[in-house]
Amino acid sequence: MKKLSLDELGRMSVEELRQAPKIPVVIVLDNVRSQHNIGSIFRTADAFRIEAIYLCGITATPPNREMQKTALGATESVSWKYSESTLLAVKELKRSGYYICSIEQTDGSLVLDQFQLPDSPGVAVIFGNEVNGIDQAVVDISDCCIEIPQFGTKHSLNVAVSAGIVIWDVFRMFMIKKPGLL
Predict the structure, then answer these.
(1) DSSP class of 12
(2) pTM
(3) Is 28 helix (H, G, I), strand (E, B) or coil?
(4) Which residue, 174, 170, 131, 132, is CA-closest to 148?
(5) Pair 38, 59: CB distance under 8 Å
(6) Percent of the chain having pLDDT more than 90?
């Protein structure tokens, strides 16, 4: 095997990606405090052609030097919106027909491999604060809660790692359900 060069990868330009079809998924960040985590999530959103990211509460917004260290330019290719209130942002998405999924450990959560794409115009996937998780009021209006199974001593994963796992799985489901989407 030979490692591919950047030219051989044939990636789109930022402008081509902005114009390209997206999967109908919005990532909502509820008071995520680490700018490195936010940048990493932007990079994941770019990789899987996510429709948009909603940055809520204390979540930092571009342009941001610390965020750029992990985003590596993805803040230029991924659409984003800021809202002071996660709850209001999620209510807006719900009114627009998005199926609301909180990534949180709850008494009624689905294990990630049990989740199936709903028949809706899109899916909003919410990730919470590194210490406190997703605000309970947001969990209360969610259509479902999804948790990533874990088998070690820790009770949670880093928010950027969780986003990578969940977004890959949702992306894969969209590609199976609608193979000509991208």
Answers:
(1) P
(2) 0.96
(3) strand
(4) 170
(5) yes
(6) 90
